[in-house]
Design brief:
The protein is α+β, with helices and mostly antiparallel strands. The chain has a single domain, classed as outer membrane lipoprotein receptor (LolB), chain A (Clam), CATH 2.50.20. It is built from four helices and 13 strands.
Length: 239
């Protein structure tokens, strides 16, 4: 394993503790201009996000109605009643984004798919980088003010749904995540820079509780005048 990745995983709680756990659960409040652009503006209602840690599976509730939730895997996404009755579902959901631009409207299943893969990625970072099939290499550090943040570039395996195949992760002097760069392939492939803040320790795992994603320019600088996606987490629990 890359020395930096080893240090990063240790700073976030360590492999031994991660392997003891199977699930994360958190209260989520999300927003940002992306959802309005997609015709699905997000309200500030708190939602409960649950993800499995060692396989890509996620669910959020409520979704669309107080008695509904989502069920996400890379190969299928659905909206269901809390008793399991299927309201809507889509097999091979990634194909529905073919030809999309940033302005292409999403339907609720598109949003459920995006939410599922994105939050699974965030709640398993950086541990997912050590999963089978990921290829991780060091990259040039990013200078942020007076700090130099070392970086890792991850090539995601085809079996994992996420923003884009190549994603960059930058870490502070304490080796905690500070910034996450990617292209949002399901929204026309725009380049994003996501800054993370307010790390907490939850059941032995350290993670950021605030995320703000911006579009970035050709030099990698965030365009701070527009928040594309905001995510605030609370009551995070690993079990």
């Amino acid at each position: 394993m890359d020395d930096l990745l080893t240090e990063v995983i240790e700073a976030h709680g360590g492999t031994a503790r991660w392997e003891e756990l199977t699930q994360a659960r958190a209260t989520l409040v999300s927003g940002g201009d992306l959802f309005a652009v997609k015709g699905l503006p997000q309200d500030a209602t708190p939602r409960v996000m649950t993800v499995r840690l060692h396989e890509e599976h996620a669910s959020v509730r409520p979704f669309g109605a107080h008695d509904q939730k989502t069920d996400f895997t890379p190969g299928r996404v659905s909206i269901e009643k809390l008793d399991g009755q299927v309201v809507a579902e889509r097999e091979d959901p990634r194909t529905s984004f073919a030809g999309h631009t940033l302005e292409t409207p999403w339907d609720p299943l598109d949003r459920a798919y995006f939410n599922g893969y994105a939050l699974w990625t965030y709640l398993t970072t950086p541990f997912l980088l050590a999963m089978p099939g990921f290829k991780v290499t060091g990259i040039e550090p990013w200078r942020e003010g007076d700090e130099l943040w070392p970086g890792l570039r991850a090539a995601f395996p085809p079996r994992i749904a996420s923003h884009s195949t190549l994603q960059d992760f930058y870490f502070g002097p304490d080796r905690l995540l500070r910034r996450h760069d990617y292209h949002v392939d399901v929204a026309g492939g725009f380049a994003a820079a996501q800054y993370v803040h307010d790390h907490v320790e939850a059941d032995g795992i350290v993670l950021p509780t605030k995320r703000r994603a911006y579009r970035r320019d050709l030099e990698g600088r965030p365009l701070l005048e527009q928040v594309m996606v905001s995510i605030d987490l609370s009551d995070v629990r690993f079990s």
